[in-house]
Design brief:
The protein is mostly loops. The chain contains no helices and two strands.
């Protein structure tokens, strides 16, 4: 499987959501208003987290266009 980098994860596809991902960040451009993410893929970081509270969605983009 080819590894995707962060820039590959910023393509919005309004027809497909990222399966298996539940998102509550309603101010993200990739959020559909319910619980789905419509980014082409997601990237989560940073790479040295020691608990879930220290992680975040690197793909997040404020609403205003996708």
């Amino acid at each position: 499987m080819e590894k995707q980098n962060k820039t590959d994860c910023t393509e919005c596809d309004p027809r497909k959501h990222v399966k298996g991902v539940l998102c509550d960040v309603k101010n993200c451009a990739y959020h559909n208003g319910h619980s789905d993410c419509y980014a082409g893929c997601i990237s989560v970081g940073p790479n040295r987290a020691d608990c879930s509270a220290n992680t975040n969605c690197v793909t997040f983009k404020p609403k205003g266009g996708c």
